[in-house]
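Weekly sync notes, structure subgroup
Attendees: PM, AL, DS (notes)

Item 1: joint prediction request from the bench team. They want all two components modeled as one assembly rather than separately. Inputs as received:
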Amino acid sequence: MAVWDLSVMVEELGPEAPPLTVSVTSDLHIGGVILKIVEKTQIKRDWSDHALWWEQKQQWLLRPAWTLDKCGIHADARLTFTPQHKPLRLGLPNGVTLKLRACFSSPVFRTVIGLCRVLNIRRPEELSLLRPVEEKKKKKDKEPEEEVYDLTGVPLTSGSVPSLYNGMPAHFADSPQTEAVYKMLSFTQPSPAPETIAKMYRPASVVDKAHIHSRWLDSSRSLMQQGVQENDRLCLRFKYYSFYDLEPKYDVVRLTQLYEQARWAVLLEDIDCTEEEMMLFGALQYHISKVSQSEPPPMTSCPAMDDLDSALQSLEVKMEGESSSMDMLETMTAPELHDYLKIFRPKRLTLKGYKQYWFIFKDTSISYFKSKEEGFGEPIQQMNLKGCEVAPDVNVAGQKFCIKLLIPAPEGMNEVYLRCENEKQYSQWMAACRLASKGKTLADSSFTSEVQSIQAFLSMQRSNPSAQTAQSDESINTHSLVSPRYHKKYKAKQLTPRILEAYQNVAQLSLTDAILRFLQIWQALPDFGVSYFVVRFKGSRKDEVLGIANNRLIRIDLGVGDVVKTWRYNNMRQWNVNWDIRQVAIEFDGNVNIAFSCVTANCKIVHEYIGGYIFMSTRSREQSDVLNEELFHKLTGGHEAL
Amino acid sequence: MDDIDAMFSEMLGEMDLLTQSLGLETLPPELPSSSHQERNFSIGFTDLNESLNELEDKDLDALMADLVADLNNTEEKLTASKSTPSQAQLDPPSLPPPLKDCAPSALPAPPSTIIPTPAPPAASFQAPPPPQPSKSLPPEEIEAQAKSDKIKLALEKLKEAKVKKLVIKVLMNDGSSKTLMVDERQTVRDVLDNLFEKTHCDCGVDWTLYETNPELQIERGFEDHEYLVEPLSAWTRDSENKIVFLERPDKYAVFKNPQNYYLWKKDKNALKDMKDRDKESLLVENFCRASIIVPDLEGALFLKEDGKKSWKRRYFLLRASGIYYVPKGKTKSSSDLACFIQFDNVNVYYGMEYKNKFKAPTEFCFVLKHPQIQKESQYIRYLCCDDQWTMTLWVTSIRIAKYGTTLYENYKAALRKAPGTSVWTNRTVSTPSVPSPAPKAKAANGHGPQAPLQPTPVTTIISEAQDHHGNEATPSSWRPTAAAETVRPPTLPNAAVFPPPPPPASASPVPSPRMVKRPPAGAHQHCDTPPPPPPEDYLPPPPDDFLEPPPDFVPPPPPGYRLNPAACRDIPPARPPPPGTSASPVPAQRKIPPPPPKRTTPVATATSGGNMS
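Output from the run, pasted for the record:
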């Protein structure tokens, strides 16, 4: 057998070092080649992560038992001996960049699984990697390097479930730095400055959105094969909008990142919503950022913690049991508010101004009397606020603190305005009205927090947003909570009451519930979860848009934006890709055949999207913990899988 | 601005003085008395005597038995806790109940539990402050403990004593009526179950408690989860409103034929023979995920203009967050939409005979209003649709948007009460097994998302189908008689030849070269499928009269607006759930995920990493 020379680059020898030459025969297997290389370098280190990369063919030589002959390697091959795991800058859904080691040799699908294991995100099949939008390098002297979190020191474990320490995966407990990373992952980020939102790239049209989707990496090929280099930046995003088995107890990071992705989708108008919905999103963001600052960190549970939890809970119950009779007594003697306020009832034909009376707020009713002295007699009127609508009518600068009430009655809604003297009075009465409208009394435990949140909102309105020095928790600029469209439409001051109005309905939610609510409303939007691609249908002369959602395909007119047709996966019989002419053909029940070629994206991406969604729908409870990787590749891999 | 405000209010103040001097001090109409007062009154009677006289002997006995039991309870409790002030239970409230035909004192107010359901948490807030039962805590700790226990007990009893109860008269569809007592902790579902016991009806899912308001000419079915006393408390004292017990196929039609609501834009012919597994997957998609999906509904409706008798046509869109319209000169894009109404504080009603009352363009009107509003008011929104189906679609979709998963839970609860329902409905019960984040949705049989597609074994289907037929024979049912069903043409010949198309999952996994694939592959696949089962197991082509968009329910006929249940009989029956038509037995293959797309080009552009072939 003839001996010939094989030249191999070894990075560890230094960038300038000439390629290493090893003499080999064609029947030498890859493992033997590696052994020879390692011996020749005379460097003592752990080489176990290293593998051979074949430059010209853009492929890894990962089978140590295969001979050079079998691999088709001859003397002209340029090989590189390089680690399979390299650092990668990963853009997370929350906008933070995290540096960590990723596998550059396995298919992206498995690389993502590895990344998610490190980040403690369950259901990694729903995520994938996206090439970032090229940043325009207009300004050379851009702002100081953003803070980059570093997790490269964390070894990638192959174990399935990371063990927990202190409520977080053990590998985060190594150092304060890694603990900070976990905090970043599991906590929502503070609201961005309005300028930040305005400056960020926003897709202006459906075509822009289609271009974003052309950036997905191919799940069946490795990072290296797709030209990703060490230290490159990639974005980790939820790709398939089919979130399976969300469980707040185990999914702290997953929920947080999902919320962040949804929040940015709303803020950057990536998904359209109405003004009312935007206000509700704003209110939820405000609430979430407020609660996450005050609530103790959400801990991932571990068995021991669970025990402790339940023990604590039973202790609480016990203590409650002991004190509850007293509590009940207190509930029975309901507290009340009383004060001089002014009332105004707009009538059809009579114009009447505000008149002052002595008001008593008790249970869910307001009664008023001519004066304090008559407060023990029959009231002039009693109004039960249960089921009524409460709206603020406030101008802090003008010292106007009115509560607008719409009280239902058989004849219609009675419109009543209450005018308070000052902020303190207003926030108490307003809180009482709000609770009463939901059938709660002043005795309800949420009264105090309701008063505080109203005061917080008033202070938001008082402070001049431009003069704000630092964004403290008490004074979030309302422009941070809505998309730029509303920056133009409303002043921050005008937005405050709108958001406050929506906030009433969410103010009592816990952090997790608020996040879940945000996600629910997001998922209920008509355009939710549709990924767009510009395609050319067979037999059509113009470009059209294909929307891919978790249950259907949508054909959309590019010009008008109207939905032309939808096809559901349920009726799908099969689909094919003709890789030669780059055409996807799909057959549906009832002999419906469609075919299209992809304009904005590689048809592999479209193909993978459809196959991916079908894969997502095959997940079920029994096999919940086993990810059927083979099936995924079968459905999405196209020809390469076979 | 503020200056103007100030000036204005000053002016208003002066005018106010003027009006006062004229002695025109007008007080607003009295609001309904606070709802937390204990009240016992009857609804639907002109006075109590009548109400008691109208009781059938049996009912009266039952009612009396209830009351006696309550009294006994009271006594026991009284002896048990001395600190309980007795007058709280014995004295009827002094506040006037809102109904003129109230019977406040005739019925003793017993602190009873008619049903064993625990009081909703709300009850604790509603309890008004009672007279203080205890003066002080004794110094001895043990004694204090004992005493506080007693106080606790007493307080609980007190709360119970404050449970509001109503005697209601429910009209039956045969013109008779039943009288029963409901307390505020009873849901509509509980009351329905109660009525099921009393009436020996078929207990089907369509039975509804219906509210009619003759003054506004509106009506709606109470939802099963509502606490019946709550909406009834909004009725005025001179109310002519009625409660009717009848079958309304529109109540849960969306769960029987979700495609008519969720795919209404599609070809009607394709919808009517939708396979059960597709219906199930529609339900799973829209009701069993993290977020409820409302039907994608939009279209031009007539809106009655405020205070006028004219109707204006506007383009409306339904979203989970409310109804929106497209403002003049704007597009349908989400950010341009103007909000018409949100559902938090309104209920949806059918408007009856509005052509006459309001000069509506058609009779197909629906109404949105706050439940407390009982008389005509500018706060009521009237909408009018082109046809009946559009109205059904809107009303049902609004209910979905308003109640969300609750509606589906109600339906599943109703199904459990209904014996011998059709195959399709029976099998729907298994859908909660589908993974959903709601912890309530228990995995009944552990099936995953694909699992509901699994056909029930043929034998069960047949037996269930027989059940179904038997069920249909019951006279009170609205379903077509068995005879009507036999009229249906037999299965189309080719339906027997080609089994129902398999789900994508069963598409042939055989790779075929190039783009030439379908015919051979298809043929191959058909050979693979087991021999077609007896034709009855396939969906029979529906009879001709179903070519129209399925009128899943027909609202009560216009003549005699007053809802006459007997008259409803004449209405063509709604389409029943297809009996035994479902579940094409394509076994085994169901679970196979869809095959990989055909490998059409033998030569890859690049080989995959590490896999040198």
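Discussion: Chain A touches chain B through 129 residues (CB under 8 Å).
Action: AL to compare against the crosslinking data before next sync.
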